[in-house]
Amino acid sequence: MPRLIVLMTVTAALLSACQTDLNVEELPFSCTGPSDCLSGFECVPVGDGSELKQCVRVGANVDASDATADARDVAQDAERDTSVDVGPDSADTSDVTDAVDTTDTTDTPSDADSCANITCSSGEQCVDGACVEAECTTDNECGFREVCEDNQCTSLVYGSIVIEDTTSQGALDCKATSPSPGADIFGVQLFAADGTPIAMGQVDEANLTPIAGNQYDDPSVINSATSATCTGDEQESPEYVSLGCNGATLRVVFSAAGSSIELTDGMVVEIGEYDSACDQFATDESYQVYKCTRSGDHCIVIASGLSGQSSVNL
Ligand SMILES: [Ca+2]
Description:
Elements lengths: L1 H20 L7 E2 L10 E5 L7 E5 L6 H20 L9 H7 L24 E4 L2 E4 L12 E4 L2 E4 L2 E8 L18 E8 L5 E4 L1 E6 L25 H4 L4 E2 L6 E5 L1 E2 L2 E2 L7 E6 H6 L7 E7 L5 E8 L3 E4 L1
Antiparallel strand pairs: 1-3, 2-3, 4-5, 6-7, 8-13, 8-17, 9-10, 9-12, 9-16, 11-13, 14-15, 16-19, 17-18
Bound molecules: calcium ion.
């Protein structure tokens, strides 16, 4: 007896749920003949070449693409029908009520993953189970500061900067005996447009040019910097990274409260370079700065030909 009560309770719950959510207009019911469908509906092939049929409103214009997309739903519904009777049932007055409810004329996608099993041809993308012309297939088809992602033009969101050393190989600073070849970066700091400090930069990626004589080849020293302005301490105990000339790169990100900071127009990045900021020595080293996405996949040059301490507008 307890088992029967449980069964009845589950069945009642299932039927209740079905009656609440069911909308006959939107659910494709499988059928084998006219007698399987409600009054006002007819049993027609789904249109994808299979033997599956479904009940549709008499005279309804069956969309071939919808029929293709819904073929899987028909199969799923058929499977569902074997466990819970949600098909047309003249004894079920709530279903009949839903069947004649024509107020809902919206074409709701039957499945959130309606594109999961659909492969579109080149130049097309799947939207709600149908292949349509893609908005883009390459970045070149998108606007300024946009990229093509998932066939849609998306605005770039910047979240890192790259400092690239552009010191020529023939520069005095790049000789093998130089203890600090290339630009010598001790801190990178982000400021708001009004000059308010926002965050110190942290090294996310470094590709230094290896030079045997480089005594300052640890990029992580930047992560301990508290300012991008020379305070004098650097002279007593120089803590900077020498990039190593000609193409070496350092990518820096900024974060606050554990979240990456988006770099927006108007912000300013201060780049602390040791030789000019702290020593006041003339230097023949140079670098340029890029603004990049957080991952570094997309970058644009925002300042070039820099030497020594620099303020760069983002
Ligand atoms: Ca140097």
